[in-house]
Amino acid sequence: MFQGIPQSWRITGIIAGGMALGMVLILGFLWGRLEQRYVFFPSDNVQSTPADVGLKYEDVFFNTDGGRQLHGWYVPGEDEARNATWIWFHGNAGNIGHRVDELAIFRYRIGVNMFIFDYQGYGRSQGEPTEQGTYRDARAALEYVVARPAVDPQKIVYFGRSLGAAVAVELATEEPPAGVVLISPFASLEEMGRLAFPHLPVGWILKGRYDSMSRISRIHTPLLIIHGDQDQTVPVGQGRALYLAANEPKSFRLLPIAGHNDTYLNGGSAYWDALEGFVEAGGKGNP
User: Fold this and answer.
1) What is the C-alpha separation between 121 and 88, in angstroms, rounded?
2) Active-site residue 260, yes or no?
């Protein structure tokens, strides 16, 4: 097949082909590492429920527009009909059973209605998790909450943690809530990839994935971002970048000592005071 082609060209072509193949393998390895490290870590074993921490709750099953059945818990607040309702979008690991301790503190400190659910492939929810799937799951959760008789649709707040913050941001651009609270958010999966692999072209394969940075300016409802200054998973600069790109009214709270998953514990009064201030503002002003 190389008849008539100079020997040097053949060698150059072979080298170039080998380099291209090597790049493909590197990018494939890179994507596998990123997916493994940053994206989905579901567990189907729901070991705890709100009842284990003394909370009254409803076991809820609802469907996505694709027919997948999702599972969640509705925890009523102190005055269900008058309170705001916070929809929880949890992070990329485990399931809602791993959030019951924070739910308990939240219920007694904040007192709002809460709805927390599992994305497809997590806990008792059907299907497999994907980026677009989590967005569809979020819309299904909102539709369920709005349909509850005691819920005021004008008093719904999106509460997203880590990957869940990106889900909350995407939903807020299409279905504006009374307020948005983001805990330990990242700007985009691409930016996280650049931090992990600074010398590789992660943008070639990650562009547009969970891209909160490109969406945050389309949100015009009150925003609170909380980030721990010891976060080794999502550096605090990611949360600050989102804050700077966001519209007013907005607030940023830095938690000394807190890491990525322990903001509600190590964040102490600074964490809970920020959330209580947001509630007291009614989602209509700077907390």
Assistant:
1) 17
2) yes
Among 90, 137, 162, 227, the one annotated catalytic: 162
Residue-wise pLDDT for 91-124, tens only, equals 999 999 999 999 999 999 999 999 999 999 999 9
Q: pTM of the full predicted structure?
A: 0.86
Cα gap 86→152, rounded to integer Å? 11
Are 189 and 39 contacting, i.e. CB atoms less than 8 angstroms apart? yes
| DSSP codes joined into one string, 185-231 | --S-HHHHHHHH-TTS-THHHHTTTT--TTTGGG--S-EEEEEETT-
Task: Assess whether 231 carries a catalytic annotation.
Answer: yes
Q: Is residue 286 part of a domain?
A: no
Indicate which residue of 118, 137, 211, 231 is catalytic: 231
- Judge whether 110 lies within some domain: yes
* Residue 152 annotated in active site: no
The tokens for 34 are 């990123």
Return the CATH number at 206. Answer: 3.40.50.1820
